[in-house]
Amino acid sequence: MIVVGLMSGTSMDGLDVAVADLSLDGEGTVTLVPLAAEEHPWPEETRARLLGVLPPARVSLGDVCEVDTLVGRESARVVREIVRRYGGDLVGSHGQTVFHSVSPRGRALGTLQLGQPAWIAEETGLPVVSDIRARDIAAGGQGAPLASTLDALWLAAGPGTKRVALNLGGIANVTVVGAPGEPVTAFDTGPANCLLDAAAVRLSGGRLASDIDGRMARAGAVRTDLLGRLREEPYYRLPAPKSTGRELFTTEYVAERLAGLPEVAPDDLMATLAELTAVTVADAVRPYAPTEVVASGGGVRNPALLDRLRAHLAPATLTTSDTYGLPAGDKEAYLMTLLAFLSWHQIPGVAPGATGSTEPRVLGRLSPGTGPLRLPEPGVAPKRLVVLASPAA
Asked: Is the keyword ATP-binding assigned to this protein (predicted)?
C-alpha cells in the first residue's frame, strides 16, 4: 500500500508529511520504503489559532470547532497535492494535540487532537485513519509515545544490547529497545523544544520561533539556581510509563519559575533550558544502561542541545535515525504511515506493555473514502520492520 502520514507535533510549527510503500509478509516482516517527505509550515493564522487554544487560555467551543476545521482543511489541501504527485491508498492523520489529560498520579485520562479527517477523505477520496491515541488510553495506556511501535520493530538488536530511541519534539520521549521479544519501555521524559521555543519567541518579541542553530544557548552559561528549581518538577519522579504535554509545560512555565531569582540573561536562559532537556533525558534513560541512543525530531537541528546530550549520555553513543534509514526530521510522519497501515490490517498498533495498556489494541478510527470500504483479512503480528532505500535515492 502507498500510505500518506501526517504529523504535527507539540512544537506546532507545521505539518510533516511522509509517503511510504508498506507491505507485510506472512512471516511478520513489515517492509517500509520511504518515497517522499516534506515539511509544510502552518499558515500564520493557523499557527496563531492553534497556539491560542493551548492552556492556560480559556476558549469557547466555537474556537475549538473553527480550529478543528481549519487544521482539517489545511491538511486536506496538502494531502491532495501529495497524492497527485506520489499516489496513495490510505492516509494516516495524527491531528494536532491541544490537550492531553493526565491525573496527578500520572494516569492518562483523555486526549484531544484537532484536524477533522472528513476534509481529507472528501478532498482525496481516500480512507483516513485518525484519532490514533484514544483507544490505547481507553485500554489503560498513556496513548503515548506511540513511536514505540516503530522503534520496537525497527531497532531491536542482539542479546545484551539496548538501544534507546529518543524523539526531540516539543516534548522528549524515549523507547527502550532490547533484543527481539524483550519487553519494550516507552515514556515522555519531559520538555525537549517546547520551553526553548517559548523562550525564543518571548525574548525576540515574536521575531524568532526557536534558538536558530542553538546560537544563544552556546553563547550562554547554565544558571544552576534556575536549573535546580526547574528540576524540582514532580513529573520527573513519576515512574514509567508516563506522558505529558504543553498543558503542563506551558508557555508561561519558565516565567513562573523565574520569580524571585536574580535576573537571568537571555543567553544564559537558553543555555539553562538546553541543559534541562539534556539532564532530564539522561536521568530518564540511565537506569536502562543503553549502548546507543538514536535521536530524531526537530531538536537534532540544535547543536547546543546535542552537545549537552552527548556529554550527559556518555558512555552511550548518540546517533540519529538517519543512520538507520529514516531522516531525523521525518521519522514521526513515517510513524503515522506505519500506524495507519497496521490499523488497516486490523493489527494492534502498540507494542505490548510499552504504553501501560492492559492489552494492545487496534488504534484509531476510520473515515471511509469515496469508494467501497473493503478491509483485508487481519494480518499477522509484525516481528520486525525493515526500512529499504527509496527507488529514487
From this structure: yes
